[in-house]
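User: Study the shape:
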Amino acid sequence: MDIPANFPYTYAFLAGRPVHERDDFSRRHPKMERGHRAKIFAPFAALDGFGWAVRTKDVVYVPRAELSEDERRMLDARFRLLAARASSAARGYDGLPEVTAEYYVPCDDPYHDAYGRAGTYRTVTGVCGHVDEISGAILIGGTRIRFEDIRRLDGAVFEEDEA
């Protein structure tokens, strides 16, 4: 690297990094570990939660899809089949079936335009542990989903029953 002739700190540049070993300065200011030193130069978030708020605006919300009568009848039949399989599994006759459900989740961000009007569709795959016909909910892999939020329900258990 070329140094300009009129550079006022040429002597300091050429001297290099100072080395402090066993002197008064090194005792008062021990060398910092690299991991701790990196924290000093980490980015500073002046507004807590601002990054999260910006990322939530990237979510695309859609209105809830209305199911046709045929789709409702098919889902009802599948709920009844799952309820029967879950109760027989509880009695030890069968194993619990694995299913995939696509369900609606309403927008829960009160600062978003879609709040109360739209939501997203999520998909969960897991073992159907319980079908609660009284409260109208199903438990799939630890996720509790209301019947009216489910748009699609698939699994090998339905293919066996339809065959």
About this structure: The first helix runs from residue 10 to 15. The mean pLDDT is 85. The CA atoms of residues 62 and 78 lie 25 Å apart.
